[in-house]
Amino acid sequence: MTSSPTPVTCPGLLYTTSINTYFGYGFISGMLGNSWSLQVSKDVSGEIGKSASLPCWFSHPHRSHDSGLTAIWRIKHPYNGTVVFKCVSDTSSDPCKTTVNYMNKFRMIGNLRNNNISISIENLTWEDSNRYFCRVELSSDRHDKYETKSGTWLHLSAPPRIVNISVAFDKSRGYHAVCTAEGEPVPSMIWTDPVNAHEDPILTSTTLRHQMTTELHHLRNDGKYTCVATNSHGKVEGSVYFFKFIAAGGSSRMGYIALCAALGAKLLLLFLMFGAVSYYSRGECALFHSSQ
Fold first, then answer.
1. 40-70 core/surface letters (b: 16 or more CB in 10 A; e: else)
2. Which PROSITE patterns match (predicted)?
3. Which tens digit of pLDDT belongs to each residue from 106-139?
4. Comparing C-alpha atoms, which of 95, 261, 228, 88 is closest to residue 161?
5. Residues 6+ apart with CB under 8 A from 238
6. Theoretical Cys-Cys bridge with 201: which of 68, 87, 160, 214, CB 3.0 to 4.6 Å?
7. What are phi and psi of 56, to 5 degrees?
8. Cβ(164)–Cβ(182) under 8 Å?
9. Which residues pair with 255 in a beta bridge?
10. Exposed, middle or buried: residue 268 (CB in 10 Å: 0-12, 13-18, 19+)?
11. Measuring CA to CA, which residue among 175, 174, 232, 182 is closest to residue 206?
């Protein structure tokens, strides 16, 4: 499917854009007359921890080109954005030699000589969610280069993951449980208490857009509290155990006194035994000396 091109008039040039669909991707093409064209995907989806492919095909005004070719990918902005990947092929028989590869995450999956500079990003993290721009350079001539202006948005998703779960105490919230989970879409979260009753949590947003924190205030029951995080990619649970400390009083105080009394009696018995052993030892020594 191809939409009608939208012409934009520039001094002495005609620049047209069109949106095309190839192999399930929505591509944006940029054409300078019939000389240059780039075909890139407008949006690409990936999952945290996995890989994603960013397609980019190009055509140039030359019937053949056997000299140097350079492929460049940058992020955030076209033309002056940060370069995250670059490879160079000096001749038609040379492979593309990587000269820039940020964090060693990028891999050329296309073939420069086949007009394909598509790349793959490995082990995706939240920081990889960005807009990417591909660029091809045929020579040192500044007019023999072309770069996409629209770029490709990389959107990331992730199943939920419990980042932290704990119990704390303060005067305003009493004993309270805190659970932080991340995912994309941001997960919904519920708590279950030791009697498997659903508790109403207090939601607090965090600084990261893909994280959510819930707090359960004034814990009443001893036992296991479970935090459940759910989004369209799955569900995960995390648990924390809580037992209130009961101050000594009543029967507990009597038990404490009894324990101290038992320990005191054992210490007294040990002291008496030590004294008896010492007394008899001195007596035997005195008898031995008198017999001599």
1. bbeebebebeeebebbbbbbbeeeebeebbb
2. IG_LIKE
3. 999 998 888 899 999 999 999 999 999 999 887 7
4. 228
5. 162, 165, 179, 181, 226, 227, 229
6. 214
7. -155, 115
8. no
9. none
10. exposed
11. 182
Cβ pair 174, 218 in contact under 8 A: yes
Residue 213 structure tokens: 């924190």
**What token pair was written down for 130?**
């960005």
Tokens of 211: 């994280």
Strand order in the sheet with 25-32: 6-10, 13-22, 25-32, 36-41, 56-59
Residue at token pair 């939409």: 3
In this structure, the strands spanning 43-47 and 152-170 are: parallel
Predicted local distance difference test score (pLDDT) of residue 104: 94
What is the residue type of 126?
A: W
Asked if 223 and 185 count as a contact pair (C-beta separation under 8 A), the reply is: no
